[in-house]
Each structure stands twice: as C-alpha cells, then as structure tokens.
Automatic annotation (TrEMBL):
Signal peptide: none annotated. Keywords: DNA-binding, Transcription, Transcription regulation. This is LysR family transcriptional regulator. Belongs to the LysR transcriptional regulatory family. It comes from the Bacteria. Gene3D superfamilies: 3.40.190.290, Winged helix-like DNA-binding domain superfamily/Winged helix DNA-binding domain. Residues 1-58 form the HTH lysR-type domain. InterPro entries: LysR_HTH_N, LysR_subst-bd, WH-like_DNA-bd_sf, WH_DNA-bd_sf.
Length: 311
C-alpha cells in the first residue's frame, strides 16, 4: 500500500475537501483525486462521497481512517528508528555484568538525555560487521586479535582496563589469601566454560596461559555466571577468573572469595570501536565521556597481551 495515497486520504478526510488537502500536501487537486482513486481501486471500495460542501467519508472510509492513521504512525516510527540523531545510540558490550556495562551505566547517569540501546554481540567480527552496516554505533572489544586487523574505516581507542581477580570457594587452597601472584596460580585448575576458540577473549587467555604457564579449562557447557558461581562454591579444586569491575551477586552460603591477582596484574583491555563516518551526535558524547583519565592503562605491574593496541 503506497503511503503517499494513505497520507493523501487522511489529509482529505481531515480537511473535508480535496482542494484544502491539495494545499496542505503542496500538490494539485488533480493529484489528490488521482491518489484517492488509486487507493479506492486497491481497496475495492468507495472512500468518499462528493457533496456540495466537499467530500464526506463513506462508511468504508470511516472504517479505514483509524487504520490509515496507524499506518502513518508506524511508518514514522520505523523511519525514526534509523534516523541518525533521532534514534537511540546503539552500543555493544561483551556481557551484562562486565566493566563495559558499568561504563555505559555511568554514561547514562551523566547523560540521561541520550537514549540508549545496549546489545550483546558474540565476537569482534560480528561487532565490526554490525558497525560497518550501521546496525550498531559502537562496541567495547579487545583489539586487535592476532590476524584480525581492523578495517580502515573502523576507529578504536583503549578506554577501560579491567584487572582480573581470582574467584574461589571457601574451601579452596587460596581462599584465605588477601592477594595471589600469577606465579602462585600455576598448578591450580582455573575453570572458565564458554571460552570459544577464535574469539578475542580466547586469544587473550591463550596468551595469558602461554606467558605464565597457567592451566585454564574451558570444558563443559556454559550455563551462565550463576551456574559457574554455584560450581566454584561447591568444588574446592576449582577457581575462575572474574573481572574486578564485574558485578556479581551470590547466595550468602556460597562464601565465595574475590582475590586480587598481582605481580603482574592481568588486565583485560576494553577498546571502543566505531565507524569513522558515523554522525550520531551521541557517539561523540560517549567518546568524550570515556576519554576521562582512567588509572591502570599500561601501568607498572600490569600485563596485557602484546597484540593489544596500546593506549
């Protein structure tokens, strides 16, 4: 159904005259008559009856009018959803509880006037494709993974380094430690189900294992963070890594311990990615917000893989 004919029908119904509708739409009266005739032919009914006072809706015209208005409202909402500057700023984060999500909550508190859509895409390749297609405006990712240089039209900047912590149950051998060195973790089973080969986070942990001789097990299905916390709490031999800025809540009986890792502290580097030609005004505000000084970038006593783009 052609929206111009629907829009013309609504204008004529509101005005009660084809001439006034033509003036409102900046077309000729003949054009209005042709559009109405086309719509009537498509619907198979008469929508107007010509009278001495102008044009009156028939019973069918009265029945069609509220639906015609809704069609125009839906069309406007559809157009608004993709108009840069009028649609929400769409940002991809790795997880709903991680540091990037926390950064976006802080941005929303600082700029409540900017409407946000926060999504979670699978990996950097999916995120970059979504940025290039315009499906999202920005993404938090570790870049650039080995063999995956960013396309020339994608910009990136390191914005947030998240220190890793060791998470253990109350019976774990390291549960009583106030901090642990990376060397102390050698020989301990670190369980991280859900690490997918080929992703940027898998590349990060592969380098961490290779650098420090750790044992990270990714076996078993990934039932989410709640199931992971349950298993770690009940299994003295298992520990896992968690981002130090990741929000976690667990039952009081779990007795889980979050232990800082030192000498050096592994940090997960979050960069913001965006398309260099993206004109969304909210994107510039987000970049300025994230550009505020943040401690920990390439600080002494921290570790990141060599392939990570420096700050």
């Amino acid at each position: 159904m052609d929206l111009d004919t629907v829009r013309t029908f609504v204008a004529a119904a509101d005005a009660g005259q084809f001439q006034e509708a033509a003036a409102e739409l900046a077309v000729t009266q003949q054009a209005v008559s042709k559009r109405i005739a086309t719509l009537e032919r498509d619907l198979g009914v008469r929508l107007f009856t010509r009278t001495a006072r102008g044009a009156e809706l028939t019973i069918d015209g009265q029945a069609f009018l509220p639906h015609a208005r809704e069609l125009l409202r839906v069309a406007e909402r559809a157009a608004t959803s993709v108009r840069t500057g009028r649609r929400p700023l769409r940002v991809d984060v790795i997880s709903s509880r991680g540091a990037a999500t926390g950064a976006m909550r802080g941005f929303h508190r600082a700029h409540p006037e900017i409407e946000l859509d926060v999504v979670m895409l699978f990996d950097i390749e999916t995120a970059v494709a979504a940025i290039r297609s315009g499906a999202i405006d920005a993404s938090f990712r570790a870049v650039a993974a080995p063999g995956r240089p960013l396309p020339e039209d994608i910009e990136s900047v390191r914005v947030l380094d998240e220190p890793l912590q060791l998470l253990t149950g109350p019976a774990h051998a390291l549960a009583g430690a106030r901090s642990v060195t990376v060397a102390q973790l050698a020989g301990h089973r670190i369980w991280m189900p859900g690490i997918v080969p080929g992703t940027e986070w898998a590349a990060y942990y592969d380098d961490l294992v290779a650098e420090f001789g750790l044992t990270i097990e990714a076996t078993g299905p990934n039932f989410g963070s709640d199931a992971l916390l349950d298993t770690v709490a009940d299994t003295p031999a298992l520990a896992t890594f968690m981002g130090g800025l990741t929000r976690l809540v667990w039952p009081a009986g779990h007795g889980l311990r979050r232990i800082p890792v030192t000498d050096p502290t592994p940090v997960y580097p979050h960069s913001l990615l965006w398309h260099r030609d993206n004109p969304h005004p909210g994107l510039a505000t987000l970049r300025a917000h994230l550009a505020a000084p943040t401690a920990g970038h390439d600080a002494a006593g921290t570790w990141i893989p060599g392939w990570v783009i420096p700050r």
